[in-house]
Amino acid sequence: MEYPTDVPGLFSLGETQLTVAEWRKVLLYSNFPPRCVLERLTFCKATRGKEHEFIVLYFRHWNASVPATARLIVERALNPYQMDGRSMIMHSSSFSALQISSLISPTSLQTSAIDSVLITSNTVHSHWETYLGGRYGSYKTLCTLEFSATSCPSATQISVLLFVINRHAPDYHLWKFQCYWFAMTIWETIKQLFSGYVEAAWKPGRSQCFGFNAVDMGDSVKVVCQEYVDEWTRFDNEAEKEKQPEQERQTKQKCRAEVARAQQVNPWWNRTMMTMLQLWAAAFDSY
After folding, report:
1. Whose CA is closest to 162, among 214, 232, 215, 105?
2. What is the distance in angstroms between the CA of the first residue and the CA of the last residue of the chain?
């Protein structure tokens, strides 16, 4: 069976890298992301250099009869370019592992961060470990989190969460808000917000660089979880408002169709009922 390409931002052709804000927008334009669920995620760490940490998300296709899984890499890096105060992100095809590793230790303590989502091509899934090794060098998987079939969070929910985490700490700070903080915050907030998961035993070396503890989350997880709840409530309310015009349009069409059907079936149909239907349709037209 061919790999599906019907869900931009999850299942598509080629490889694309987006900021978390861009990824959220892409998913909002499709009806399928709420039905594409997160099966599992892995916490990965490069074992050389700055020991970069990143998360891999595995999303199941919305159609249960299609045995396909999208693999997305989520990570934080220092913004390589800043022009007129605006951030720029390079496409994944030109964003090499060497560039990524060289950006983990900035000369300044704080500057804007790039929190990105890399939608990988299905062509690399058959040799996944080799692909990650080519991108990050030597690496290891520190932990895996798997959700049960009935409790998986949706891609839309995860996109909103990543957006909130980025908004909570948009700047890259060498000793506080770096890749270690970003990866761990994603991991812990997902655990706090969504139940029904099984977490494997952790391997040593979590959130460390050259053997030293490199991150202090403080109250980030608690605060981000509350910010997510607020943002999701706002998002849900806006989505409900957007549905109302469509529902009204469908009601109008139904009224007109009912009038037309009645006229075709019986031209001498009860005039009182006909008048009521016409008034009903006109009432909707006035809105």
Report:
1. 232
2. 48
Q: By C-alpha distance, which of 112, 93, 136, 117 is closest to 24?
A: 117
Tokens at 22, concatenated: 């861009």
Q: What is the pLDDT along the chain (287 residues), one digit of tens a residue?
A: 789 999 999 999 999 999 999 999 999 888 899 999 999 999 999 998 889 999 999 999 999 999 999 999 999 998 876 533 433 333 333 344 434 444 444 444 568 899 999 999 999 999 999 999 999 999 999 999 999 988 999 999 999 999 999 999 999 888 889 999 999 999 999 999 999 999 999 998 776 554 556 565 657 899 999 999 999 999 888 766 765 555 555 555 665 665 566 556 655 545 555 565 566 556 655 55
Delimit the domains of the chain by residue range. Answer: 16-218
Where do runs of H (alpha helix) occur along 140-195?
155-168, 179-193
The model carries a pTM of 0.75
Contacts of 12 (CB under 8 A, 6+ apart): 5, 119
DSSP state of 138: S
- Please report the DSSP string for 32-68 in residue order: SGGGSEEEEEEEEEESSTT--EEEEEEEE-SSTTS--
- Cβ atoms 116, 87 nearer than 8 A: no
Tokens encoding 256: 């007109």
Neighbours of 181 (CB within 10 A): 25
Q: Cβ contacts of residue 188 below 8 Å, gap of 6+?
A: 217, 221
